[in-house]
Amino acid sequence: MTTGFERDRDDVARGAKAVVVYPDTGISSRDADARLAETAGLAMAIHVEVVDRVAIKVRALQPSTLIGKGQLEALAATVRMAEAELVVFDASLTPVQQRNLEKALSAKVIDRTGLILEIFGERAATAEGRLQVELAHLDYQAGRLVRSWTHLERQRGGFGFLGGPGETQIEADRRLIRDRMARLKKELEQVSRTRGLHRDRRQRAPWPVIALVGYTNAGKSTLFNRMTGADVMAEDLLFATLDPTLRQIALPGIDKAILSDTVGFVSELPTQLVAAFKATLEEVVSADLLIHVRDIAHPDTIAQKDDVEAVLRDIGVDLSVPRIEAWNKLDMLDADDRAELLGEAARRDDVAAISALSGEGVSALLDTVAALLTSSHRRYTILLDAGDGAGAAWLHAHGEVLEQSVEGEQAIYEVRMAERDYERFCQR
């Protein structure tokens, strides 16, 4: 019987049996069981069967295998008993560690970065998403060719008059990867320019942009669907949404706003993915307001919040941008926890306790969003010709008309609107 190790080691077969391993170094604030549960969820997201979960206390990281010799032998026995073809390490492995672990365990080994890349590769639905995932995967794979490919020790004859041994296959493959990455980066730069033009057009409109951010599986897409009436994929699944989705919504006092649903974040999000998804994440960077959707029923909700905040800092989100925390999944709390949570949320202006699934609290969230977006609005008295229907329509579309009257051939409007909208109106 051929094992996953003997098959093409760049592919993870659907239905393969997997053992999930969490090397507990004592550094992470996360509970070991929670980390194992999350990694098992990530593994199941690529349709593998998790047959065992193992937490290993690591006192000193081994450069060659990450874990100690005795721990490695015990893990090998577990893998054999489970007849596992795949071992998923909830850690970052060097190419050398990955190769040595595969030899010792006689199974395919992938680390956290490789696992997340597998998921993104399967989920990317648009041309842009596929470009981003391929770029991230090539960047990750470039340093691991010595592990992944079986033909790399062959050499080709040299060209030209001098001859010589020529370039090794691994050098040729690395060169091909570099060339492909360069082409992908050019294509993504074009995507970024196009997205920037669309963003500039929206800002000239201008409609406020609200971005939903949060840990993967926190309920962003469910909330997005609830707020917009859209049908974005929303499942109890890690990384259900990869490509950004934008829809217009109406808010109290605001005729139109743009709501953006973005890719979920995760702890130790691979740097390759942060770089590759830069064009997508620019929607977050340029947003007028962020709604941080939190799975408040999750045991690691505070650690997840910290992870999201770290990614937001990494991608350059302005700390002065207003943000609201949507404490989601109220429906999953027991009565005591729910009462305590609602009390705490009521004492804060930047929090809304909701259940995106049932709709509870979403109306109050929309009121809070509208209040924040209009907090800088001022009251203006504007005079128009009585027959200026286009001007009157503009005021109704971009501001809140408080009073209006007609004196002779002039119409007088008392309007509350943002200062930038008033300046734009004066320039029309």
UniProtKB/TrEMBL annotation:
Pfam families: GTP-bdg_M, GTP-bdg_N, HflX_C, MMR_HSR1. InterPro entries: G_HFLX_dom, GTP-bd, GTP-bd_M, GTPase_HflX, GTPase_HflX_N, GTPase_HflX_N_sf, HflX_C, P-loop_NTPase. Residues 208-377 form the Hflx-type G domain. It is found in: Cytoplasm. PROSITE patterns: G_HFLX (PS51705). SUPFAM superfamilies: P-loop containing nucleoside triphosphate hydrolases (SSF52540). The keyword Lipid metabolism does not apply. The keyword Endoplasmic reticulum does not apply. Keywords: Cytoplasm, GTP-binding, Magnesium, Metal-binding, Nucleotide-binding. Belongs to the TRAFAC class OBG-HflX-like GTPase superfamily. HflX GTPase family. GTPase that associates with the 50S ribosomal subunit and may have a role during protein synthesis or ribosome biogenesis. Monomer. Associates with the 50S ribosomal subunit. This is GTPase HflX. It comes from Sphingomonas echinoides. The lineage of its organism: Bacteria, Pseudomonadati, Pseudomonadota, Alphaproteobacteria, Sphingomonadales.
